[in-house]
Amino acid sequence: MARRSWFLCFALALVACSARAAVVEHTFNVGNFSISQLCQPATTITAVNRRLPGPTIHVHEGDTVVVHVNNNSPYNITVHWHGLFQRGTQWADGPEMVTQCPIRPGHSYTYRYNASGQEGTLWWHAHSSMLRATVHGAIVIKPRNGEQGYPFPKPDKEEIIILGEWWNRNVFDLARDAFLSGTPMDPADAYTINGKPGDMYNCSGGNHKRRTYKLKVQSNLTYLLRIINAGVNTPMFFKVAAHNFTVVAADASYTTPYKTNVIVVAPGQTVDALIVTDATPSRRYYMVASPYESAVPNPGFRRTMATGIVEYAGAPRTAARRRPLMARMPAFTDKSTAHRFLSNLTALILPGRPTVPLAVDTSMFVTIGLGTAACRKEQTSCDPNQTVFAASMNNASFVLPTSMSLLEAHYMNVSGVYTRDFPDEPPLAFDYTKPPSDMDDITTKSTKVKTVAYNATVEVVLQNTALVALESHPMHLHGHNFFVLAQGFGNYDNNTAVKRYNLVNPQERNTLAVPPGGWAVIRFVANNPGMWIMHCHFDAHLPIGLAMAFEVQNGPTAETALPLPPADFPQC
Ligand SMILES: *[C@@H]1O[C@H](CO)[C@@H](O)[C@H](O)[C@H]1NC(C)=O
Ligand SMILES: *[C@@H]1O[C@H](CO)[C@@H](O)[C@H](O)[C@H]1NC(C)=O
Ligand SMILES: *[C@@H]1O[C@H](CO)[C@@H](O)[C@H](O)[C@H]1NC(C)=O
Ligand SMILES: *[C@@H]1O[C@H](CO)[C@@H](O)[C@H](O)[C@H]1NC(C)=O
Ligand SMILES: *[C@@H]1O[C@H](CO)[C@@H](O)[C@H](O)[C@H]1NC(C)=O
Ligand SMILES: *[C@@H]1O[C@H](CO)[C@@H](O)[C@H](O)[C@H]1NC(C)=O
Ligand SMILES: *[C@@H]1O[C@H](CO)[C@@H](O)[C@H](O)[C@H]1NC(C)=O
Ligand SMILES: *[C@@H]1O[C@H](CO)[C@@H](O)[C@H](O)[C@H]1NC(C)=O
Ligand SMILES: *[C@@H]1O[C@H](CO)[C@@H](O)[C@H](O)[C@H]1NC(C)=O
Ligand SMILES: *[C@@H]1O[C@H](CO)[C@@H](O)[C@H](O)[C@H]1NC(C)=O
Ligand SMILES: *[C@@H]1O[C@H](CO)[C@@H](O)[C@H](O)[C@H]1NC(C)=O
Ligand SMILES: *[C@@H]1O[C@H](CO)[C@@H](O)[C@H](O)[C@H]1NC(C)=O
Ligand SMILES: [Cu+2]
């Protein structure tokens, strides 16, 4: 379904030819797909082109991407191109009712955008209901001049590793039931690697090939693993038994090469890591993804792990008869291992790449966490006095508009869709990590945005609260990368934290796992006019309000202003 057509290269010099841009075109048929996992009866899932995960979009930096989405599913759907800036194509970002009204069942819509100014691994996913559990796939952006443009030795081979979560039921119904009952979502039935749960589950029947991902390798080569957490609610530890990693990028931003035997990747994040196949070929090795559970108290999670198998070419027959070597995984609650990995990464300084801005125009202190809210009328299963599970940022629990998207309301100056009063600080200051026992955890629903001037440098301190439960929330910002200046546990204290800011080579991300019961400081340049949601990338928390949006004003020129919406933009 993918087509590459090269623009005419009419320049005289070869160097200009290497700056050619291609159009990469895909057709995504979104529809029912019947699949059986864990020896359960077949489940009807929503998937793209009858594949789980869906197709990979391979491009070179600067290429144009055209994706025709045909919605043959029974659900409203939109597709988000996670981590792509969408500068100049802001209307193509995808989140339902933030950027656009959904593509209705039986309808089609074509997304067009350029993969400009970034390289590495990103991904695409549905941004409606919880459909992204099964509607997702990788986006690989190679340097303009191909693999020789990597700022690390060219690997011999590349593999995509997509971590996921699987439910033996329809996830649309699952999400709706959690919302209507106002209770936490049921945990997944399995974790997966490239759609497959692996060997650790109670599933004796079935076809082994269908349930375990296998990576066949040759000895003494370097493999680049492009690891994506497409899971819904679970950060993961990832290891390959008897092999170490050198991390070279995260969220499509190059990092200083970082050696580690364990990778931590939260939903929304990606990690590019090299592994060298220098282990004895006479064994097979498990690659393992296990949950990292930071919530205290924890509503419950699946205490299992996903496995794949690394098998060497030319291995003796005996290798296949022995159980693969298992990796020793961190404990599910090992927050120090998670924090070490997540805070140790630094950016690779490259000429021409943005560096952290030193002067701040807009400072915010934002609490993020759980709480309760008054029952809403559609939440029929709770009585009028009861409260339901909710989440908030600065005590504002975000609700999506229903009549038109935030971006359309912004563009057309329609009032009443959102308000410009998202607060710069929480209404109450308290010990966020040990709130007083009589602290009111109730929040109110609203659609508040923070308006910032074009090109403003915005700094946000994200502080997790322990109301209801403390937890590491993976905070994702659309339309921009941010620099992560510092992270820590406890309450943020500017007297000690500011000294620790990395203003030299902070890691650049689009999704940050804020330490549980802790804080993180991010900084970004609001150089992309439009409406950009910043939200928790757990689907258990986004619909209950762990979100806000930045309204970035137009710049002074046509290039720095929001363009016209596409003529065929979906309407509500
Ligand atoms: C797709 O699956 C849903 C849910 O299982 C079902 O209601 C619907 O009829 C199916 N549609 C088609 C076209 O098979
Ligand atoms: C996208 O790339 C094409 C081809 O290089 C170019 O003509 C177009 O102006 C670009 N669009 C934006 C919004 O940058
Ligand atoms: C497998 O079944 C046993 C016994 O019913 C149960 O204790 C265990 O948790 C199951 N394991 C998984 C991974 O579901
Ligand atoms: C891989 O390299 C090791 C160490 O240099 C060597 O002993 C081994 O024979 C090599 N294996 C293959 C298949 O080339
Ligand atoms: C992985 O790295 C650790 C620490 O540097 C080292 O002790 C170990 O031998 C390495 N393992 C492999 C398989 O290279
Ligand atoms: C890596 O993390 C550990 C534990 O958090 C810390 O002690 C160490 O200084 C960090 N190293 C770097 C290079 O940041
Ligand atoms: C709801 O609140 C009212 C007034 O506070 C009270 O009289 C009533 O008993 C409550 N109902 C329930 C089910 O708690
Ligand atoms: C929205 O308001 C701005 C400033 O008041 C104006 O420049 C712009 O033309 C208006 N846009 C629309 C679509 O009415
Ligand atoms: C949040 O706002 C509600 C009112 O909507 C108030 O009752 C509550 O005390 C506030 N909580 C915090 C932690 O600010
Ligand atoms: C945006 O900020 C950068 C860096 O401060 C500056 O070079 C550039 O001119 C600014 N652009 C506009 C349109 O203000
Ligand atoms: C900490 O914040 C206070 C209040 O905003 C400010 O007066 C002080 O200068 C800040 N300290 C540092 C080290 O930035
Ligand atoms: C689907 O989208 C349309 C248009 O926005 C809306 O009217 C309808 O209620 C949505 N359906 C569902 C099930 O959310
Ligand atoms: Cu996202």
UniProtKB/TrEMBL annotation:
The keyword Transport appears for this protein: no
Cofactor(s) named in the record: Cu cation
Recorded coiled-coil stretches: none
Pfam families, per database record: Cu-oxidase (PF00394), Cu-oxidase_2 (PF07731), Cu-oxidase_3 (PF07732)
Signal peptide: 1-21
EC number from the UniProt entry: 1.10.3.2
Protein family: Belongs to the multicopper oxidase family.
Keywords attached to this entry: Apoplast, Copper, Lignin degradation, Metal-binding, Oxidoreductase, Repeat, Secreted, Signal
Superkingdom classification of source: Eukaryota
Subcellular localization: Secreted, Extracellular space, Apoplast
Gene3D superfamilies: Cupredoxins - blue copper proteins
Catalytic reaction equation(s): 4 hydroquinone + O2 = 4 benzosemiquinone + 2 H2O
Record carries keyword Transmembrane: no
Cofactor note: Binds 4 Cu cations per monomer.
PROSITE patterns documented for this protein: MULTICOPPER_OXIDASE1 (PS00079), MULTICOPPER_OXIDASE2 (PS00080), PROKAR_LIPOPROTEIN (PS51257)
GO molecular function: copper ion binding; hydroquinone:oxygen oxidoreductase activity
Entry's Gene Ontology BP terms: lignin catabolic process
Gene name linked to the record: ga24441
Any single GO CC term annotated in Swiss-Prot or TrEMBL for this entry: apoplast
Listed name of the protein: Laccase
CDD domains tied to this protein: CuRO_1_LCC_plant, CuRO_2_LCC_plant, CuRO_3_LCC_plant
Domain Plastocyanin-like: 33-145, 159-315, 422-554
Protein function: Lignin degradation and detoxification of lignin-derived products.
Main location per the UniProt record: secreted
